[in-house]
Specification:
500 residues; alpha/beta; Udp-n-acetylmuramoylalanyl-d-glutamate--2,6- Diaminopimelate Ligase, Chain: A, domain 1; UDP-N-acetylmuramoyl-L-alanine:D-glutamate ligase; Protein-Tyrosine Phosphatase, Chain A; six-stranded mixed beta sheet; 16 helices; 24 strands; 33% helix
């Protein structure tokens, strides 16, 4: 059997594809690679003059040729053409780029059972758990917020995108098929769908989990946001499966408009996969799964009500793809949970510490609801969070108002300022509080340490926004950070030793 290392090495060997395989041209050129950045040397490559929000690739054609491009795909007229270069005119260079990437890497998603997950919240958790469960039975790949994984852990967090660009996506897909993966689970972001990164992906199953206000800097209104998510389901063949949360009003709309095989899940409405008698604890959850007249009692290490929806989606995906419920039941009480998503920290302390990636009003609602479910009425909820820069600014008042209503104490702290000033962001956040007077501690570790110092037996600390991130994003790029988990554990250890 080919080893993982051999597989990766083979992908780094030269790949060649004749340009005539994709384009209607009589030119006979062997392309060795796809040039995405015209500033970087890339011999025998093809360059696509794509038009983005800011830059127009036509401006960089000469630079691309200087750095090794031997074929140029363009849509606007070109005045100066160079000898020996193949020029191919198309209506849309972006669509041509996606098609070429798929062909260059030999159509990998058509060789796997490819599962797409979309929704505002829960994409990563659903996709991650599907990957971990399928791995008990078949080789399975994952592409999403956590990086990309198959076989043993292989990740490239430098992708920086939930849905990577087409060149990366299909290259990774090719690695996975070479490794022998039979299943690929893929997070489908609305931006990835809108920018055509997924146009050539052959999905056999798609999941819609929910839709709440987010990314309004991109979509501007909820209708546009919904239409972006709908693209995934419009891509499905008639015999593909659409697995939809019908407790969500947008899920109900999708049911009416989707033409593939529809499978439903819910807690409130009657559905193909329904959860009843839900009980939530601070270390596990229990519910009865009703499917096709049968009742299965589920015990899982997943926490919070929103994770019951996530797990229903997971069970539906696996069962509808041939992994019977009876086969997966033994694994549900010790799932490989997603780091930084409703993650409980147990370092021997007598209070709860919960880390969550929550940064939208809807995700704040859910994580505070979970905090209240595990915190006695006479105990306190302490929240530590900030807000990222250069993103949807409507999140800021929304998250602040929820924290003001639900928390007993708030510490505002460092997040990802990007090009903005972090202190300015936090001062703005503070203006949205009416009931509480949040303290601002710029250093995130110091803020977490302060919360740990204040926490008493039975209290709950929420560390929100960064999840398992080990970096901050500022105007200069990534800067290292120990992570909220490490910060909390260090602070708890100091408290146990009486040093704070």
């Amino acid at each position: 059997m080919q080893s993982k290392i051999d597989c990766i090495f083979s992908m780094r060997r030269l790949r060649f594809m004749n340009i005539k395989k994709v384009f209607d041209t009589d030119q006979d050129k062997e392309i060795r690679s796809i040039m995405f950045d015209s500033r970087k040397k890339n011999p025998d490559s093809i360059f696509f003059a794509m038009k983005g929000k800011i830059n127009d690739g036509h401006r960089f054609i000469d630079q691309a040729i200087d750095n090794g491009a031997i074929a140029i795909v363009y849509s606007d007229e070109i005045e100066n053409r160079r000898e020996g270069i193949v020029y191919i005119k198309v209506e849309d260079a972006t669509l041509a780029y996606v098609s070429f990437c798929n062909a260059f890497y030999d159509y990998p998603t058509e060789k796997m059972n490819t599962i797409g997950i979309t929704g505002t919240n829960g994409k990563t958790t659903i996709a991650w758990i599907i990957r971990s469960l399928v791995a008990h039975f078949d080789k399975c790949g994952y592409i999403g917020t956590m990086g990309y994984y198959y076989g043993e852990k292989i990740s490239n967090s430098s992708l920086n995108l939930t849905t990577p660009k087409s060149d990366e996506l299909f290259r990774i897909g090719k690695e996975m098929t070479d490794y022998g993966c039979r299943v690929l689970v893929l997070e489908a972001s609305s931006e990835g769908l809108l920018t055509h990164r997924l146009d050539q992906v052959h999905f056999t199953t798609a999941v819609f989990n929910n839709l709440t206000s987010d990314h309004m800097d991109i979509h501007h209104d909820m209708e546009s946001y919904f239409k972006a998510k709908q693209i995934l389901f419009d891509m499905l063949d008639m015999d593909a499966k659409a697995i939809i949360n019908i407790d969500d009003p947008y899920g109900l709309r999708l049911m009416e408009q989707c033409n593939s095989i529809k499978i439903t899940y819910a807690l409130e409405n009657d559905a193909d996969y329904k959860a009843e008698n839900v009980s939530l604890y601070n270390d596990h959850s229990e519910f009865d799964l009703i499917h096709e007249g049968k009742k299965y009692h589920i015990i899982t290490n997943l926490l919070a009500r929103f994770n019951i929806y996530n797990l229903l989606a997971v069970i539906a995906v696996l069962n509808e793809n041939g992994y019977e419920i009876e086969r997966i039941l033994p694994y549900l009480d010790h799932l490989d949970t997603t780091p930084g998503r409703c993650q409980m920290i147990d370092a021997g302390q007598d209070f709860n510490v919960v880390i969550d990636y929550a940064f939208t009003p809807n995700s704040f609602e859910k994580v505070f609801a979970f905090a209240k479910s595990i915190t006695s009425d006479n105990k306190k909820i302490l929240a530590v969070f900030g807000a990222s820069g250069d993103r949807d600014h409507l999140r800021r008042p929304g998250t602040a108002v929820i924290a003001d209503r639900e928390a007993d104490q708030v510490i505002l702290t460092y997040d990802d300022p990007s090009t903005e000033d972090m202190m300015d962001i936090l001062k703005e956040m503070k203006t949205y509080f009416k009931r509480l007077d949040p303290e601002i501690i710029l250093d995130r570790y110091e803020a977490i340490q302060k919360a740990v110092t204040l926490a008493k037996e039975g209290d709950t600390i929420l560390l929100l926004g960064k999840g398992n991130d080990e970096f901050f994003l500022d105007k200069n790029g990534r800067i290292p950070y120990m992570s909220d988990k490490v910060a909390a554990e260090k602070a708890i250890e100091l408290k146990k030793k009486g040093k704070i």
